[in-house]
TrEMBL record:
Topological category with respect to the lipid bilayer: Multi-pass membrane protein
UniProt organism field: Desulfofundulus thermobenzoicus
Signal sequence range: none
Pfam families with a match to the protein in the record: SDF
Keywords of the record: Cell membrane, Membrane, Transmembrane, Transmembrane helix, Transport
Source organism, top-level taxon: Bacteria
SUPFAM superfamilies: Proton glutamate symport protein
Protein name per UniProt: Cation:dicarboxylase symporter family transporter
Subcellular location: Cell membrane
Molecular function terms, GO-annotated: symporter activity
Length: 416
């Protein structure tokens, strides 16, 4: 037993194990294409295992968070207002940065358009706002949960949490049950995430075996410029963290596990249980974490916003459209609105691109040009989406959550 314990202590931290898996997987996929492609089921099993945790975790965490704030609806409203102000500010900065980078570097110069991927079937080319708002309210919560629909689940959890707060002591049995579910989900998450290094190696082996090579280099300028933009956003986030009196590099290191999971799986959902657990351990109250993260994963997509504005500008210039001030404003406003309006729509980034291209009278088929390399851009933008929600949680704690911490008796020190 002692030897086993010593062996575990000698293992590198999980984030470093994941990073090693990422590199090993890339090497396998590059050198042994057939073997790398055959490893896809391992990655698929890992992603499915995480996704099975997400809905019960989100439902129990959000319900309990709202229940604990339910006695002070003013506080709840203030946190919600602060969250959405930050979501729109961060998204606006990302969109403007994407437009600016295209205006400076013009990655579409000399590009000959040729589709390298396929459009998803029945891809929406506009946003049905009536359907968007009516879909927020689930007609069957069990069906919504079974369909992994986060926003209807969030809506029900918020309403349920407020209702529990309104019935006093009678809610205790339900609250205890939900706390048991939440703690069980965190424990289950630890077990699943322990397999992440192997799963990440399998995913990266499959990606490099099936989607690498000439397709990537054909769009290298766009991919490279997008990663420059993502790095700039990261620096902006670091400056904000430093302005709050925290160490930006220590903050990044502490959330390295969800960032690496986001990079390799291209899924924010997969990172949610790990991300929530880490932020709570740093001292941010459960009330804030369970409120901000599920909301942010649906509405705060900073990396996606940068990609969408940059990609549309790239396609517009590749088709010979001169981007005058009217076109730039159209891209800015349409992306800002559509980025939030597609929060519960499948293939959301592609739908946003379709909406913006439609507003500029550009052919929808242009999206297929990006489809061949979308995986490599999705890795980066998902990572920034996750880190952006770390910043959202820290900001809300600093500016709207001190009272929450005092109510809970939590020390007002965030070690992120």
């Amino acid at each position: 037993m002692e030897n086993a314990a010593n062996s575990r202590r000698r293992l590198p931290p999980l984030w470093l194990q994941i990073l090693i898996g990422l590199v090993v997987g890339g090497i396998i996929g590059t050198l042994w294409h057939g073997f790398g492609a055959a490893l896809q089921p391992i990655g698929t099993l890992f992603i499915k295992a995480i996704k099975m945790i997400v809905i019960p975790l989100v439902f129990s965490a959000v319900t309990l968070g709202i229940y604990k704030m339910g006695s002070d609806l003013k506080q709840l409203g203030r946190l919600g207002a602060l969250a959405f102000i930050w979501f729109y500010v961060a998204t606006g900065i990302s969109i403007i940065l994407g437009i600016a980078l295209n205006g400076i570097f013009h990655p579409a110069a000399g590009v000959v358009l040729q589709a390298t991927g396929k459009l998803p079937e029945n891809l929406a080319t506009s946003i049905d706002w009536v359907k968007f708002f009516t879909d927020i309210v689930p007609d069957n919560i069990v069906s919504a949960m079974a369909g992994q629909k986060i926003i209807p689940t969030l809506f029900f959890a918020i309403c349920f949490g407020i209702s529990l707060a309104g019935i006093g002591e009678k809610a205790k049995v339900v609250v205890d049950f939900l706390e048991g579910i939440l703690n069980s989900m965190f424990k289950l998450t630890q077990g699943v995430v322990a397999t992440a290094p192997v799963a990440v190696a399998a995913i990266m082996a499959w990606v490099f075996a099936t989607q690498g090579g000439s397709v990537i280099w054909g769009m290298a300028k766009l991919i490279g410029l997008m990663y420059v933009g993502l790095l700039i956003i990261m620096v902006i986030f670091w400056i904000i963290v430093a302005a709050l009196g925290l160490n930006p590099f220590a903050t990044t290191r502490k959330v390295m596990e969800p960032l690496l999971l986001a990079f390799t799986t291209c899924s924010s959902e997969v990172t949610l249980p790990v991300h929530m657990n880490i932020l709570e351990k740093t001292g941010i109250p459960n009330k804030i974490v369970s409120f901000v993260l599920p909301l942010g994963y649906s509405f705060n997509l900073d990396g996606a916003a940068l990609y969408q504005s940059l990609a549309v500008c790239f396609l517009a210039e590749a088709y010979g459209l001169h981007l005058d001030m009217a076109s730039i404003l159209t891209i800015l406003l349409t992306t800002l609105i559509a980025n939030k309006g597609t929060a519960n729509v499948p293939a959301a980034s592609l739908v946003v691109l379709a909406v913006i291209l439609s507003s500029l009278n550009l052919p929808m088929e242009a999206i297929a040009i990006l489809a061949g390399v979308d995986r490599f851009m999705d890795m980066g933008r998902t990572t920034i989406n996750v880190f952006g929600n770390t910043i959202a949680a820290v900001l809300l704690y600093k500016f709207g959550g001190k009272a929450v911490a005092e109510d809970d008796g939590v020390a007002s020190v965030v070690g992120v």
